[in-house]
């Protein structure tokens, strides 16, 4: 599938530039900086929410103390969140010490802290209502772009930047140009948001959106449930993106209000203006898209599943902040119901949050997967970056719902990782080789609202 591509040039020195409309990225950074911000400008913006986890937190704490002093207060404890999710449970003494550092810092400063098994930062912040449309959210984790799926400016920063922002509540930004990905029509059975984003990355390249924003629009995107929109924003960073947006709408408001119990006021201006200038525009017909698989060892190596169909696999990994939500895991369970994993194939499932884990237990998804032969871990990041709970050995081949497949990402430098949607993983689990999910019956699920779920 070849997209239609349009290139436009924005002249930041043009005195008439203020006469044109703004992209969503420009609007949000204008609001947070109190300036008329345009792509290419530098602004100092006020932060709404700050986050770090057990790997990035300790260095951020050190910077905070160096900048503000040992007894200083956080800029906003009620809007500061720390998670223990990467080396969780601790896989060594250093990891355990990092966990304790997070616990101690959060307790001392009154910040929110989620412990082992509570979930991955990007799942927890959305589920627990810390992020709202229009917020500026910084996280000491590259996949903080996830929050753009509900209309926030979410972006990853280094631990030193985060430590400084914890003291000041502000951070400098270069206002990014925006690449627009417009998709129209209905997705075919077996094709999901993960396939869309892999195709986008394949077309743009792993650095084609560097320090730019990605904006996803069109009737196809508008029809996606929130959990699939989050997938698109999550992987904006895999093409270098500073942020990835889906403009919030009534579906966004409905989900957040039901999930969090908070009243959400939808600002109709939280979308790009019709006359906004985009760096490039990629246009697609949804019906033309096939399930995608990214070959080792870069997400940009996206091809139609038919090009790699039949590749033998050793391990299947279902989880991560990209595709570890209940709806993702349910797609796999639906395929495996009453079946067993193919011989000599193992499956590791890691839910993105405790809520996902508990709902799997209540609905029978847990039983379905374990009956099929899968191993289910507590919520966290685990195998995604090769930490523990499913590390690959030499020459192992893995098909994963993860976001990265760089050399050694999930273990041995001699292993090979392919990326795909949960549906492709589920279909491949039946045969022990990469399999086109269109060859079997697959499902698409609407958003699960855990706040409305009774045990």
UniProtKB/TrEMBL annotation:
<feature type="binding site">
    <location>
        <position position="321"/>
    </location>
    <ligand>
        <name>[4Fe-4S] cluster</name>
    </ligand>
</feature>
<dbReference type="InterPro" id="IPR050067">
    <property type="entry name" value="IPM_dehydratase_rel_enz"/>
</dbReference>
<dbReference type="GO" id="GO:0009098">
    <property type="term" value="P:L-leucine biosynthetic process"/>
</dbReference>
<dbReference type="InterPro" id="IPR033941">
    <property type="entry name" value="IPMI_cat"/>
</dbReference>
<keyword id="KW-0100">Branched-chain amino acid biosynthesis</keyword>
<keyword id="KW-0456">Lyase</keyword>
<feature type="region of interest" description="Disordered">
    <location>
        <begin position="1"/>
        <end position="20"/>
    </location>
</feature>
<feature type="compositionally biased region" description="Low complexity">
    <location>
        <begin position="1"/>
        <end position="12"/>
    </location>
</feature>
<keyword id="KW-0432">Leucine biosynthesis</keyword>
<comment type="similarity">
    <text>Belongs to the aconitase/IPM isomerase family. LeuC type 2 subfamily.</text>
</comment>
<dbReference type="InterPro" id="IPR001030">
    <property type="entry name" value="Acoase/IPM_deHydtase_lsu_aba"/>
</dbReference>
<dbReference type="GO" id="GO:0051539">
    <property type="term" value="F:4 iron, 4 sulfur cluster binding"/>
</dbReference>
<dbReference type="Pfam" id="PF00330">
    <property type="entry name" value="Aconitase"/>
</dbReference>
<comment type="subunit">
    <text>Heterodimer of LeuC and LeuD.</text>
</comment>
<dbReference type="InterPro" id="IPR006251">
    <property type="entry name" value="Homoacnase/IPMdehydase_lsu"/>
</dbReference>
<keyword id="KW-0028">Amino-acid biosynthesis</keyword>
<keyword id="KW-0411">Iron-sulfur</keyword>
<keyword id="KW-0408">Iron</keyword>
<keyword id="KW-0479">Metal-binding</keyword>
<protein>
    <recommendedName>
        <fullName>3-isopropylmalate dehydratase large subunit</fullName>
        <ecNumber>4.2.1.33</ecNumber>
    </recommendedName>
</protein>
<dbReference type="GO" id="GO:0003861">
    <property type="term" value="F:3-isopropylmalate dehydratase activity"/>
</dbReference>
<dbReference type="InterPro" id="IPR015931">
    <property type="entry name" value="Acnase/IPM_dHydase_lsu_aba_1/3"/>
</dbReference>
<feature type="binding site">
    <location>
        <position position="381"/>
    </location>
    <ligand>
        <name>[4Fe-4S] cluster</name>
    </ligand>
</feature>
<dbReference type="GO" id="GO:0046872">
    <property type="term" value="F:metal ion binding"/>
</dbReference>
<dbReference type="InterPro" id="IPR036008">
    <property type="entry name" value="Aconitase_4Fe-4S_dom"/>
</dbReference>
<keyword id="KW-0004">4Fe-4S</keyword>
<dbReference type="InterPro" id="IPR011826">
    <property type="entry name" value="HAcnase/IPMdehydase_lsu_prok"/>
</dbReference>
<feature type="binding site">
    <location>
        <position position="384"/>
    </location>
    <ligand>
        <name>[4Fe-4S] cluster</name>
    </ligand>
</feature>
<comment type="pathway">
    <text>Amino-acid biosynthesis; L-leucine biosynthesis; L-leucine from 3-methyl-2-oxobutanoate: step 2/4.</text>
</comment>
<comment type="function">
    <text>Catalyzes the isomerization between 2-isopropylmalate and 3-isopropylmalate, via the formation of 2-isopropylmaleate.</text>
</comment>
<feature type="domain" description="Aconitase/3-isopropylmalate dehydratase large subunit alpha/beta/alpha">
    <location>
        <begin position="41"/>
        <end position="432"/>
    </location>
</feature>
């Amino acid at each position: 599938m070849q997209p239609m591509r349009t290139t436009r040039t924005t002249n930041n020195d043009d005195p008439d530039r203020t006469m044109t409309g703004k992209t969503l990225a420009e609007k949000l950074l204008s609001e947070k900086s109190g300036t008329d911000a345009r792509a290419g400008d530098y602004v100092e913006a006020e932060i709404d929410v700050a986050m770090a986890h057990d790997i990035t937190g300790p260095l951020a704490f050190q910077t905070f103390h160096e900048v503000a002093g040992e007894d200083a207060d956080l800029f906003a404890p009620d809007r500061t969140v720390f998670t223990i999710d990467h080396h969780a449970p601790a896989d060594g003494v250093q990891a355990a010490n990092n966990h304790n550092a997070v616990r101690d810092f959060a307790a001392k400063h009154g910040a929110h802290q989620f412990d082992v098994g509570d979930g991955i930062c990007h799942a927890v912040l959305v589920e627990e209502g810390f992020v709202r449309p229009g917020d500026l959210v910084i996280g000491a984790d590259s996949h903080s772009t996830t929050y753009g799926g509900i209309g926030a400016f979410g972006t990853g920063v280094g631990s030193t930047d985060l430590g400084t922002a914890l003291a000041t509540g502000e951070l400098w930004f270069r206002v990014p140009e925006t690449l627009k990905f417009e998709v129209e029509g209905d997705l075919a059975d077996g094709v999901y948001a993960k396939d869309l984003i892999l195709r986008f990355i394949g077309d743009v390249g792993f650095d084609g959106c560097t320090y730019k924003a990605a904006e996803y629009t069109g009737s196809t995107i508008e029809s996606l449930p929130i959990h699939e929109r989050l997938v698109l924003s999550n992987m904006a960073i895999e093409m270098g993106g500073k942020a990835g947006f889906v403009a919030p709408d009534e579906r966004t408001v409905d989900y957040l209000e039901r999930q969090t119990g908070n009243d959400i006021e939808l600002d109709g201006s939280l979308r790009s203006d019709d006359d906004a200038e985009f760096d490039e525009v990629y246009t697609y017909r949804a019906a033309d898209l096939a399930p995608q698989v990214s070959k080792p060892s870069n997400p940009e190596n996206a091809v139609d599943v038919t090009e790699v169909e039949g590749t033998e696999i050793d391990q299947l990994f279902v989880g991560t902040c990209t595709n570890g939500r209940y709806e993702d895991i349910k797609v796999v369970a639906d395929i495996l119901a009453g079946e067993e994993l193919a011989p000599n194939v193992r499956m590791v499932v890691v839910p993105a949050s405790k809520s996902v884990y508990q709902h799997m237990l209540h609905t029978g998804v847990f039983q379905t997967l374990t009956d099929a032969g899968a191993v289910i871990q507590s919520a966290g990041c685990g195998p995604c970056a090769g930490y523990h709970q499913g590390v690959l050995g030499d020459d192992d081949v893995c098909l994963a719902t993860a976001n990265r497949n760089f050399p050694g990402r999930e273990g041995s430098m001699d292993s090979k990782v392919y990326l795909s949607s949960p549906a492709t993983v589920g279909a491949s689990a039946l045969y022990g080789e990469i399999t086109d999910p269109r060859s079997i019956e697959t499902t698409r699920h609407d958003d699960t609202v855990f706040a409305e779920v009774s045990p």
